[in-house]
Design brief:
The structure holds two protein chains of two kinds.
Chain A: H1 6-11, H2 16-45
Chain B: H1 4-23, H2 25-57, H3 71-98, H4 101-133, H5 141-162, H6 166-180, H7 183-193, H8 209-245, H9 250-259
Helix pairs in contact in B: 2-8, 3-4, 3-6, 3-8, 4-5, 4-6, 4-8, 5-6, 5-7
The chains are: A mainly alpha, B mainly alpha.
Amino acid sequence: MNWGSLDAFLAMGGYGLYVWGSYGAALLCIAIEVWTLAHRARASKEKRP
Amino acid sequence: MANGGNKAEEGAEIRGNILLRFAAPPAFYPLAGRLVPFFAILAAVLCAAGLYVGFFVAPTDATQGDSYRIIFLHVPAAWMSMFLYVVMAFWAALGLVLNTRLSGMMAAAIAPTGAMFTFLALWSGALWGKPTWGAWWVWDARLTSELILLFLYLGFIGLTSAIDDPRRADRAGAVLAIVGVINVPIIYYSVQWWNTLHQGSSVSMTKAPSMAATMLVGMLLMALAAWMYSIAATLSRVRSIILEREREAAWVRERELASAGGTA
């Protein structure tokens, strides 16, 4: 275990902004893509008049 | 009279037919649908394991501190950005040569995920470059060629979506994808061919074996997760593309009638 506390974990040895800025962007990108994929899948299955 | 030779030929023909059957959108659509959850779950499990190893098992780096932990995202994203481009160009070329419907759809399905990983490689690279190099961005060979890769993906997406006829869009996109594939070995070997600021291989690899091992395991787990995620995302997207392009086809109509009132 590397971290004594949650604060230490979030601080990332002073590099928190860089580390969490990277992983946060990845999470956001994946969330957007998954949402877009689900939306597109629904739209493609919609019944036509 | 059937002899051994004929039987072997029959066997080969049946296997060939199975491959051909799944190359046709009506058969590939349900197959892809069954595979998406499998790869998505695999991606989630591998990602959780990779993040656990990366943040809780791998120790702090002696020279870079904890900023090096960006590696568990940065390297897999960069690997996927190059690998997906090659796969996309392969499908595009196959479509150009064999004129199969599914090939162009596969290429189109890969592009957005490839662009996303390219963006993430650049973004995480900038956030890693600032604390280690003192600069968000430098115009060095590795960074510049990776930026060109992003423009190639965006160019492919823009070009194919600007052409109304899907088959013509596939062909135009295929030419761009195939020409652009030359950029991939340039990215890969850029750190050897030119004197770049970007490190050749990871600095962590030359440290104590126990350290190198846990860092490498974390990185490989994340790379596998990115791979499984890409397969799931691509298969999900290609399903939508199949329905969008073939909505007038008899098999889509039949599917709709069969699922009327039930779940789609």
